[in-house]
Every structure is written in C-alpha cells, then in structure tokens.
Amino acid sequence: MTTYDLSTDSLRALNQALHEEEISAREWRITHPDGAHNIACGVNDALCIDIDGHVGYYCAGMNQKAQITIHGNAGVGVAENMMSGCVRIKGDASQSAGATAHGGLLVIEGNASARCGISMKGVDIVVKGNIGPMSAFMGQAGNLVVCGDAGEALGDSLYEVHIYVKGEVASLGADCVQKEMRQEHVDELAQLLSRAGLDDDPASFKRYGSARELYNFKVDNATAY
Amino acid sequence: MTDTVFNPALRESATFGRDVIAEIQRAADTGIYDIRGWGAKRKVPHFDDLLFLGASMSRYPLEGYREKCGTEVTLGTRYAKKPIVIDTPVTIAGMSFGALSAQAKEALGRGASEVGTSTTTGDGGMTAEERGQSSKLVYQYLPSRYGMNPDDLRKADAIEVVLGQGAKPGGGGMLLGQKISDRVAAMRTLPKGIDQRSACRHPDWTGPDDLAIKIAELREITDWQVPIYIKVGATRTYYDVKLAVKAGADVVVLDGMQGGTAATQDVFIEHVGIPTMAAIPQATQALQEMGVHREVQLIVSGGIRNGADVAKAIALGADAVAIGTAALIALGDNHPRFEEEYRKIGSAAGFYDDFQEGKCPAGISTQDPALSQRLDPVAAGKRLANYLRVMTLEAQTLARACGKSHLHNLEPEDLVALNVEAAAMARVPLAGTNWVPGQAY
Ligand SMILES: Cc1cc2nc3c(=O)[nH]c(=O)nc-3n(C[C@H](O)[C@H](O)[C@H](O)COP(=O)(O)O)c2cc1C
C-alpha cells in the first residue's frame, strides 16, 4: 500500500506517480484530499485507489481500468469521460457526475446533483439516492439506474441510454418517454444492481428511453428543436 | 450569379433581392431554416480594406530575395513542457472527420506536414489516417466530446478547448444523417443516419473559473506536456480573451464571423459575431493589458485567403493564422473541373456550399465512399503544401517591403485603412491621414 498525504505531497507529484508506466504498487491510499481538484485523473492502469475524504472537481476524470473509491463527497464532473474501471462515491456527487463517460461503472451511494450522466457514451451509472435535473441530457449509450427520485427534464434529447428509476420522476425532457419493462430489461437491471452491490428489486423500477422522434429534422417537431 | 435580364427597365429591389425572394420561397415550401456550409457570404469590412506602408525614405526595406525574413512561430511557451514550433504561421483549422472524408483529413495532414505546420482534428475525434500523416496535430476538446478519449489525448501535440466558432458563436454543431456513415456513427457512439446536433455548452463546466479547473485537469492528465489552446468565436473578444488567459490558456484561437463551417443555419452564419479584422485589435489589447502579448499566442482565423491577409493579421497582433475554407479549396473544393456535377446538384463551381448534404463532387465534404475515393490524399496534400508555400512567400514579401526581418515584427504602424469603417475596426489611420476613428489626434 502506497500512501500519499495531500496535506504535504503535491497533487502534481501524485498524478505523475499514478501515470508512471510500470507501477509496482497496486494499492494506493490518498489522505487529506480536502476538496482538491483533479485527484487521480488520467489513470491508465488497474490500480486500486482509496481516497479518504471529500474531493473537488473532476476526480478520476478519464479513468481507465482503475478502481477508485471516494470515502466522502465528490465535486463537479467526477469520473467525467471515464473509459473503463470503476469509481465509487460513498457520499454525494455534485453536478455532471459521469459526464460523457464511455465505459466502466460509476456508483454513487448518496445523491447526485444536476446533469448526472450528461452526454454519457456507454458508462453504467448507479445512484442509490436521488438525481438532479437535466440528468442524462443527450445521453448516447449506457445505463443510468436511480434508486431514488429523478429531477426535472430527465433524459432530454436522449439517444440510446437506458434509464431505470425506482422513485418519482419530476418530469421527462423532450423525446424521453416511459417504456415497457421487458424481461431483458429486468435482467439487465438486476446485473447492474448486483455489480453496484445493491439489493433493490429490479421489478420495482420503471424504464425510460428515447421516443426517437427527434432523430431526424421534421417540420412538425419544430417547437422541440 | 448574374444573368442577363431581358428587359433593362426591370428594377431589382435592393431590399428584396433575388436571393432574398428565393429564400422566402424556400422557407414557405419547407418550413425549416436553411442549413449550409461555408462562412458568411455577405460583404463585411475585411483585410482588403487595409494597405501596407512600404519602406522608402523614413523606413529601410529588406532585400527581397537575399535577406532573411523569419516565419517560424513557437506556440505554447507559457506552461507546456513541449511547445509546438511551426515553420510558417499558417496552420490548418479544426474540421471534423464526419464533415470531411477520411481522405480529405489525410490530405490536410500531408499538406501541413510538408511545410512544417500543424493541423487540427474536429468534432468527431481523431482518425488514424490523420494522426499518421500529421507531424503536428492539435486535438479538439469540444462540448460534444465525440470520440474523446485519453489515449488520443496523450497522442496529441496540443489540445484545443473549443468554446465557439466564428460561423456560429453560441451555437453547437450539426451533422445531418446523410453523413453519419457506419464509421462516423461508431466514432461518435451515435445511431447511423440520424440528424446529429452537438451541444453548444460543455457538459461539465460553465464559467471561466470552472474552465480554469478543467484546463488544469487536461494538463494533469497529459502531465503538463502539451500546449492548451482555447478557441472562441469573435463576439465580446476583449473580455473573452482576458478570461481565456485567466483560465490558463497557452494559446487563444480567435475565429471571426467570416469563418467557415460544415453545417449551420444560414441566419446564424450571416448575423452573429464580428468580423475577423475587428476582433484582432480587441484581442491584442486584452493580451497587452495583461502583459502576455506574444507569451500567450494568438491564432486568428475567419476568411484568411492569401499572404496579405496573413501579414495583416500578424501586423494587428496575431502570432499565426488558421485556414479552413481556403485549405479545402486548395485540396480541390469548388474546382471548375466538377462544373457539370455541381450543376446536377443545383450548384456551380465557385458557389457550392451544401457541405451538409454529403454530395461533394470533389470527395471532400462527404462520407460517400465512391465520392471520397476521388480525392487522392497525396496529390491533394501536395496542392495544399504549394498553396501554403505561396501564402508564406507572399507574407514575407510584404514584411520585407516594410523592412521586417521576421513576420512578427510587422505592427499596426505598418498599416493604413482605405475607409472609415476599417480604420475604426482595425484601429489604424485612414490612408493619407493621421486619423484613427475613436482616438484623439
Ligand atoms: C468543413 C468545415 C468543418 C469544420 N469543423 C469544425 C470543427 O469540427 N470544430 C471547429 O472548432 N471548427 C470547425 N470548423 C471551423 C474552422 O475550424 C475554422 O474556424 C474556420 O473554417 C476558419 O475560417 P475560414 O474557413 O474562413 O478559414 C469547420 C469549418 C469547415 C469549413
């Protein structure tokens, strides 16, 4: 176990160390993050990283392969553009969690704020609590699972993301509709919940997706553009 | 296009010209705004309204063919460990694979590399052809983040955070279904054949304070190796440049309203933004006031066509320029040899701007395999290299005439304006006077 104390060691030295080509230490502990931005971004190795406390913006940004656990709350854009691996937040996440992420698993054990999964491109996001407004805006691919409630304009201008919500949805965004929950979706959701370590009943969720009405410009849809 | 009017007594309306009438008719037919490529087609004050004061008695010229006039530029000297050195101040602007064929992207890389300058990806990610053929490649970081990934980020020689484009400041991108081929769809993680809209705002930051953190993130991911540019469309340029510098840019890319686009609403192209010439003095002033002129480099684009435009942009304070439309023309866009085919799709050589349709006879703004194959990337790259050389030689010719041993020694003092508008915008005197509008004698 390698320990980095951000109250004494610099963020630059930490990230540089995490980017080295051949890292012998596989387990890392980062102490005193104290809300610093850009902690452990750009990691490209199957490291196991625990962060003891709250982090600022873009923690675990563009993560590849690493398992990163934040034992606290996360600022804006946690795991933005993640490609693979797993990022787990024990507390709450601020806006744009998992924005544009292409792959991997993002688990938020608390609540997530606005724009969770905005423009997501293949990541799986599981939120134990609630999510804020405009979540999954222009979401292209992947899954967004919400065990609590979802804010306004969920899935606005959605492409192909699958959204599962257990609680209430304040409102759906343009072109996002409730869809039938078929067996394949129950199975998919069961898998996502189990990967996230949650035991909610998949049958208690509703599914939302794109009506695909805005996929091509049509005069009749002019008010929606 | 002019044609002969059979009765000379017929009077065309200046307000309702034939193009205006045709557009009203088109709107009434279809119910949707006009989307097209190219840049603003209206006449705006431009570099043609400026002239150089060559040397004579009070200034000493350099010998045209013998005395050196440097053209190299170093970009990214502020923070990057590896700044980019280009041999000519003319770079290739960001144009997406998707908007352009893979062959066109490769040709741009070949042409740029041959003369030692940089080329730029676009909204849709980096292709292997482009990376392979570009010795210096700038990777765009756009709101859509299509194809954005850390592997390509680490392969880039610079990163350009795009906030806007001169053709559509405040607007996002478009790529219509005809151009979303299997490869383009896969690179963007989109369904094939849809009319794709790119976001106009970045998904994970809002104001300049957030942008500073975003830039720090990109630097952390790339271990502070490569320069980070910020590209803005020209509007409130003075403030935007100040904020870009504050956010930590190594280089500011400023795209004026004439700047080209692959697909945008015509109303947007023609009515939003300020002319390139008007934007440069604002940017230069902002950089000078912050004490970073020439330390944070300024790249200017939007209607750059020849070495005179290059020299004038530099004299007004730019470090380099970028070209889009002109580069496509050099590759073969709008060439008369395709006249017959342009006619078949309702256009003509010299007028073709429907890049969004994907039917480009020259094989440039298309994803149709048969059309794209017409463009030989090697030959087209050679044409671009020739053109870039001509622009460089022209700029040197003008600089030497003004007595400058490097293009960067050109200054506003070398310029005068032909009319009051240009004098006011470029902040140089009206020719034959000492009068700069807005400034006291
Ligand atoms: C076909 C085409 C595609 C473009 N794609 C992009 C793009 O993906 N990203 C971007 O920032 N600008 C894009 N632009 C704008 C150029 O980067 C540049 O700002 C502009 O073309 C400069 O003006 P000029 O065409 O008059 O030289 C595109 C322009 C054209 C003509």
UniProtKB/TrEMBL annotation, chain A:
Entries under Gene3D superfamilies matching the protein: Glutamate synthase, alpha subunit, C-terminal domain
Transmembrane intervals: none
Classification via InterPro entries: Glu_synth_asu_C_sf, Glu_synth_lsu_3
Signal sequence bounds: none
PANTHER family: TUNGSTEN FORMYLMETHANOFURAN DEHYDROGENASE, SUBUNIT C (FWDC), TUNGSTEN-CONTAINING FORMYLMETHANOFURAN DEHYDROGENASE 2 SUBUNIT C
The protein's name in its UniProt record: Protein glxC
Biological classification of the source: Bacteria, Pseudomonadati, Pseudomonadota, Gammaproteobacteria, Oceanospirillales
Automatic annotation (TrEMBL), chain B:
Occurrences of domain Glutamate synthase (ranges): 76-332, 358-404
Keywords: Oxidoreductase
Keyword rRNA-binding in annotation: no
Pfam families: Glu_synthase
UniProt organism field: Halomonas dongshanensis
Protein family per UniProt: Belongs to the glutamate synthase family.
Keyword Oxidoreductase among record annotations: yes
Name by which UniProt lists this protein: FMN-binding glutamate synthase family protein
